[in-house]
Specification:
By secondary structure, chain A is mainly alpha-helical. Chain A has 15 helices and no strands. In chain A, 71% of the residues lie in helices and 0% in strands. Chain B has two domains: 130 residues, no CATH class; 145 residues, Ribbon (Umud Fragment, subunit A), CATH 2.10.109.10. In chain B, the strands form three sheets. In chain B, strands 1, 2, 3, 4, 12 and 13 form a six-stranded antiparallel β-sheet that branches. In chain B, strands 8-7-6-9 form a four-stranded antiparallel β-sheet, with no helix packed on it. Classes of the chains: A mainly alpha, B alpha+beta.
Amino acid sequence: MARFDKLEFNTSGRPSAEPAERDPLARDAGYWMNQADASRREGLYESALKYYSRALELDRSVVAGWVGQVQMLVQLGEYPEAELWSRKGLELFPNNGELLAGRAHAFCRMGDMKQAHALSDGSLQQAGESAYRWLVRGEIMMATRQDMDRHCFDKAQAANPDWLVPMEIAQVELYYRRPSKAWTRIRNALETTPDATQLWYMQGLCQAELGMTQAAKESFERCLELSPRHVATEKQLRRMKKRKWSARRLFRRLLGR
Amino acid sequence: MPGVVTCGRCGANLRVASLPINVHPPRASRAAKRWRRWFPTARYWGRFRDAVAGSLARIRITGWPTHLQTPGVLIRLIVPGWAQCHVGRAQRGRWFFRCYLGLLLTGLLFIGTMLGWVLLGLAVSLHAASVLDIVAADVTNLRKRLIYSGVALVLLATVLYYPAGHLVGLVASPQRFSVAAPPFAAGDVVLVNYSAYAWSEPRPGDVVYYHLSSYDVWLAPGEIYRLQGDRVDRILAKGGQKVTSNQGKLLIDGRPCPWRPINGQVLPEGLKVAVPEGCYLIIPSADAIPAAWGAVSVVPRARILGRVYWRNQPLWRFGPVR
C-alpha cells in the first residue's frame, strides 16, 4: 500500500505495544533471549535452554545465546554435553571468554581440574570482564579447595550487580556443600531484591541444608506467596512434611557431607 | 570490510548468522543422567589422574619423557616397591618389597590357619600402602586418605588378588581337618589340587579328597553312626576290578594290592567287592566302623574332588602326603 506510506497518524495517545506482542512473526532473537533470561531467573532451566535455542534459530551470531545454552546444560547436570556444546561454540567464536569459561565450568564439574584451570586462565586473559568468568574461576578454586574462591565470587558480583549472580554463586556453594556461605550471599541479595522468588527458594534450600527446618519452611512459604505455582518449592515443602528418619541422611551427617 | 569471512582480530566467523548449523544442543537421556549421578566415574577418574600427577610432580621422575611417566608408574604398581624403585626411591621400594615378600611367604606357609590368613591380609594391606605411597603422596586429609586406601584395597582385591587366588586355588587349595581323622590330627592342613583330574583320570594309589554320601550304620539298637561329608583317603582299585580281603591282605583281581588305606591300621576283613565302571574303591579308613565297608567304599568318579599332595600344617609334619 504505497499510497498510504506518507500518511501521518497521531499515536501519542496510546501506549506503544512491543512488536513481539503485536505479531508472533515479529518475535526476534532479542525477544527469545529475554524469555530465556526470565525463565532462568525463575529457575526454569529447561525452558531457558529452549528459549536460547529459539533465539539462535533466528540469529546464530548471538554469542550470549550459545553461552546461555552451555550454562543451562551445566545447571541441568549435563556436563559432557555442555563441554561438547561449548567446544562447538568456540569453533564459531574462537577464544570467546564466556565460552571458554563455560567449557572450564563443564570440565570442573566433570572433575578434570587441569583442563578447567587452563581454560579458566584463557577466559580471564580475553578482553573484557564478566561475572561468569569469575564465577567459574571461583568454582574451580572451591573444587580444588583453594582459599581464593571468595575473592573470585566477590569479583563476579562486582562485575555484575544483578541478583542473578549471587544466586548462581550460592548454587555453586550449595553444590560443594557450603550452605552457610551460600546463605550469607543469598541473604545479602535478598536485602536489595526481596521480591525475587528464586532467592527465597534458594534461601529455603540453604536453611534446610543447615538443619533450620522451620526457617526453611518459612522461606519456601514466602516463595509461594510471590509465585503460587512454584513447582520446586511445593515439592520441597511436601518433602519436608513427609520427612522421616533416613539412613542416607544419617550417613551423610556422620561423614560430614 | 565487505567480503571478509572471519574477524581479523578474534577469528570469529562473520557469517555465522547465515550458516546452516544446528543450534539445538545434544541432550543427555534420563537414564544417562541417573547413571552419571550413581557412578560418577569420569569425576573420580579425573581426581585420581590429578592425584597421581600431583604425586609424580612431587617425587620428580628423571630420565623419562613426561607422557610415559604416568602409565609406566601405574603398571609397576602391580608389584609392591617396584614403582618406588622406578621413580628413584629405591630404598623405600626395597623395604616395601622385602616386607611384602616376608608376609606373603610366611602367610603361604601358614595358609589354612588363622595366622596364615592374617599374614596374607597384612601383605595385601602393605601392597595397598605401597600404591597409596605413589598415587596419594600429597593427600594429607585423613578422610580422603581413608577413602583412597579403601579404593586401593578394593581395586587390588578385585583386579589382582581375587583372580590370582582363584587360579592358585585350583592347584593348591588348603583344607583344614576340624576333627582328627588318622593319620591326620585335628588342625592339620593339607593342600588339594582340584585341577589334578581335569585332564586325566584318578589312578589307584592316589590320595584323594572326596565327598562321601550319607550312609547310616546301625551299631546297636538306638545307636546310629552316620558316615557323611568330605574325606581324604587313598584309591585302592578302579572300575572293573574285583577286590577281596583276607587275613590282613588286600587282593585286587586275585593279586596282592601294593596300596593300603591311608590309615594303615584299618583293613576290613572278608571284603568282597566288584567295583562298577566309573567308580573307585576308597576305604574311609579314618572311620573305624566294622560294618558296611562294601557299601561306603565304592565312590563314583564325580565325587572325587581333587588330589591331596601336601601336608602344610603342622610344620613338624610338613611334607608330601603318601
